[in-house]
Write a structure and sequence with these properties.
By secondary structure, the protein is α/β, with parallel strands linked by helices. It contains eleven helices and eleven strands. Strands 3-2-1-4-5-10-11 form a seven-stranded mixed β-sheet, with helices on both faces. Strands 7-8-6-9 form a four-stranded parallel β-sheet, with helices on both faces. About 50% of the residues are buried. Bound molecules: 6-O-phosphono-beta-D-fructofuranose (F6P).
Length: about 325
């Protein structure tokens, strides 16, 4: 193998740049040529491909977003789109590909692997919803962004004695809500993996108010539903002044934390190692601080599981 490609795909996440840097530098260290594919699978189809050298990934380790840009690409879900992509890879003489992204991106990677094209996935998403890895690149940074926001909201919530509903991202997973809610001492954490009893939440809020609680913070994962609707219901049923903040895409930006930079560097380098060892159709991950790899097929067939022990702990600590 002489030449590999790398792309970032799906929603960007802080640390993707550090992962691209690691792939490029590790590959060059082992005398491989590396080509960057811009705009994810969309750029693969249209041939937006360029050779990268060690300098092209300088000064990006600390930057959010992705230097390679990203996209969500419907066309690559079709056989025709996949064939066009493979044609481009062949045209550029790219013998194997590293895909940095979330589960949508891994579906693309799996298709390439099915067509016999060596592909390795690197988990990059703020959602932390990929099985086979304890953490995904970007989760820690997003978490810290949320915590910073909730701390600020808490100040104003106390001053005004209000109830706050804060909607966080996570797609169908509750990790961002659970971890940020636990780290911020939220009174209630609503995640899609657990069905909540709204009446119970209402009566807890009322009881807290009677006890003299000055404010309440409720963290809602977007997968549960609209934070705005939940806020309206809470205000109506508790008669407590309630405000809603939807944190939105602020959670996807910003300079990656040290944790994410290190994780991205380790996973990016590991992906190159797997290709050098002749592996394909795999995803790299980290479990109990050990670098691991799993079949992409197996990862896509598995479901991400919320840490139930942590969820129960959050309930105990918010009595
Ligand atoms: O997967 C990352 C994520 O930020 C999810 O948390 C969110 O549901 C989605 O992407 C938003 O996607 P878009 O940026 O395309 O609106």
């Amino acid at each position: 193998m002489k030449r590999i490609g790398v792309l970032t795909s799906g929603g960007d996440s802080p640390g993707m740049n550090a992962a691209v840097r690691a792939v490029v530098r590790k590959a060059i260290y082992h005398d491989l040529e590396v080509y960057g594919i811009y705009y994810g699978f969309a750029g693969l189809i249209s041939g937006e491909i360029e050779k990268l050298d060690r300098g092209s990934v300088g000064d990006i380790i600390h930057r959010g977003g992705t230097k390679l840009y990203t996209a969500r690409c419907e066309e690559f879900k079709t056989l025709e789109g996949q064939k066009k992509g493979i044609e481009q890879l062949e045209k550029f003489g790219i013998e194997a590909l590293i895909v940095i992204g979330g589960d949508g991106s891994f579906q693309g990677a799996q298709k390439l692997a099915e067509h016999g094209y060596p592909t390795i996935g690197v988990p990059g998403t703020i959602d932390n919803d990929i099985p086979g890895t304890d953490y995904t690149i970007g989760f820690d940074t997003a978490l810290n962004t949320i915590i910073d926001a909730i701390d600020k909201i808490r100040d104003t919530a106390t001053s005004h004695e209000r109830t706050y509903v804060i909607e966080v991202m996570g797609r169908n997973a509750g990790d961002l809500a659970l971890w940020s809610g636990l780290a911020d001492g939220a009174e209630t954490i609503m995640v899609p993996e657990v069905e909540d009893d709204m009446e119970d939440i209402i009566s807890r809020l009322k009881r807290g108010h009677k006890r003299g609680k000055k404010h309440s913070i409720i963290v809602v994962a977007e997968g549960v539903g609209s934070g705005v609707d939940i806020g309206k219901e809470i205000q109506q049923k508790t008669e407590l002044e309630t405000r809603v903040t939807v944190l939105g895409h602020i959670q996807r930006g910003g300079s990656p934390t040290a944790q994410d930079r290190v994780l991205a560097s380790r996973l990016g380098a590991k992906a190159v190692e797997l290709l050098l060892a002749g592996e394909a159709g795999k995803m790299v991950g980290i479990e109990k601080n050990e670098l691991v790899s799993h079949d992409i097929n197996e990862i896509l067939a598995r479901k991400h599981i919320l840490d139930n022990e942590m969820y129960e702990l959050s309930k105990v600590l918010s009595i």
